[in-house]
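Hi again,

Forgot to attach this to my earlier email, sorry! This is the prediction with zinc ion bound. I've pasted everything inline since the attachment limit keeps bouncing my files.
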Amino acid sequence: MSEPGRHRFEYCPKCRNELGERFEGGRLRPCCPGCGYVQYLNPAPGAGVVLLRGREVCLVQRRFEPKMGQWTLPTGFMEWDESIEETARREVREETGLEVELTRLFAVETGILPPDQPVIVVFYLGRERGGDLQAGDDAADAGFYSLDDLPGTIAFAAHRNVLERVRSELLNGDSK
Ligand SMILES: [Zn+2]
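Structure tokens for the complex follow:
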């Protein structure tokens, strides 16, 4: 589990009073004695896409910390005004240059993004619809790699779990 620690506000973002604590919705939460503001700490939602070319899967190499240099499926955080499907398509476009259509929901993973950010990531299966494969600004590299010979360390348990499921559920038939 992740402690709210640095995510917890010290002062009310609305009226600048020092926050106290109060039971709200079943647990003790940061709460403003002045205006009644309650800070609800929730995981950050993100989306990722499993994009296959035969037995190869699209992976991007992380340019920045955390886990710089390691590999993930194309994934990112949801913006305020997006649907989760829009997030998934945008992240693939930004990180790989490819346009995708989402074909179905594949997995939902919860976990902690280091050092301490709880996240929920929705993974879709996708199909290429165009674009040119090219690593985006926040990726060091992007490409299709054999599921039997991944290019390096896969960052984050959620991505390792999803890749394992891809191997066992989607590709078993192909390899026999
Ligand atoms: Zn306040």
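Strands lie at 20-24, 27-31, 44-53, 56-62, 71-72, 75-77, 98-113, 117-131, 139-146. The chain has two domains: 8-41, 44-175.

That should be everything now.

G.
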